[in-house]
Amino acid sequence: MNIEEILGKLRFVLGLVVPVCYIGMGIYVISEKIFIVKIEPDMLAYSLGGVLIIYGIFRLYRVVKQ
To answer: Measured between alpha carbons, how far is 19 from 61 in angstroms, rounded to an integer?
Structure first.
């Protein structure tokens, strides 16, 4: 197994783990309304959580597309 095969597998695994973390973080922000500090207007928490979820889905799509 050469270094290119190892890096390819690592890139694929990280490509799956990172988007799932973004989606999970988005769900957490929406449900708990906390992102490093408490988010006061609820609409701001929903917006930030939605952006994180959409970005996670986009990154997951790019990994699956490859």
So the answer is: 9
Taking the model in full, what pTM does it have?
A: 0.86
Quick one: tokens of 52? 């994180």
**DSSP symbol at 57:** H
Q: Tell me, what's the pLDDT at 53?
A: 97
Place of tokens 């890139």: 11
Q: Are 53 and 26 in contact, with CB atoms under 8 Å apart?
A: yes
Nearest Cα neighbor of 64 from 5, 8, 12, 9 is 12
Cα(42)–Cα(62) distance, integer angstroms: 30
**Of 65, 28, 66, which Cα lies nearest the Cα of 49?**
28
Q: What are 20's two structure tokens?
A: 């799932």
